[in-house]
UniProtKB/TrEMBL annotation:
The keyword Transcription regulation appears for this protein: yes
Domain of life: Bacteria
Annotated source species: Shewanella algicola
InterPro entries: GntR_C, TF_FadR/GntR_C, Tscrpt_reg_HTH_GntR, WH-like_DNA-bd_sf, WH_DNA-bd_sf
SMART domains recorded: FCD, HTH_GNTR
Any GO MF annotation of the entry: DNA-binding transcription factor activity
Residue ranges occupied by any HTH gntR-type domain in the UniProt entry: 13-81
Pfam family, one: FCD
Position of the signal peptide: none
Keywords for the protein's UniProt record, in alphabetical order: DNA-binding, Transcription, Transcription regulation
Name of the protein this chain belongs to: FadR family transcriptional regulator
Amino acid sequence: MNSGFESIAGSKRSLHVQVAREIARKILSGQLPQNSIIPSELELCEQFGVSRTALREAVKLLTSKGLLKSRPKVGTKVVERAYWNFLDSQLIEWMDGISDNDEFCSQFLGLRNAIEPEACALAARNATVEQRMKLSEIFEQMCDIANADVFDQVKWTSVDTQFHSLIFNSTGNVFYLPFGNILTTMFANFIHHSSTDGSTCIEEHRQIYSAIMAGNSDKARLASSTHLQAVKSKLPI
């Protein structure tokens, strides 16, 4: 097992973010096990080729995401997985290529099943005029892409992400907002994974859209559940 790091000196990215990413990926992949003590500050500075300031900022960032915890006279320790902040969009980005894609999408779908139908119901009830206008604009784009002679995966992923993210942001409930934010990260991977055959579930989206625009929360909830069941059938799990 290689838990060492390569120098990132000269990287164009913000140094502390780059350092944090590399350490995070070692943790997420298990190369730095839970409850283990990471290399000392001096060792890491030498391996990465960065200053102590950059390293300390990286550790602070990883601590805020629940991955690390520093203790006097003990060192910096990898926190147990149960405390990692998997709803952090940056952490999700760093997981790319590490976790089993099928399993990760399956777990994400489980989360969606638990909260998204209710988010649609709330959006039907609470979306503002401006949010409904924006949803109409987005849905029109979805129809254009779905009806095009050649399916554009990149455009579909972008507009489908916007559609679902806007729904969470239209609930009128602040506790749903973080989900709308992480969707912009996770959905790009999830939608691509579930629509690689060119299928867009446009009719299921139409039912969700129509129910929200009509202010019918019960139909919006049901339409969302139906859509998620359709999505589940397309995942290779």
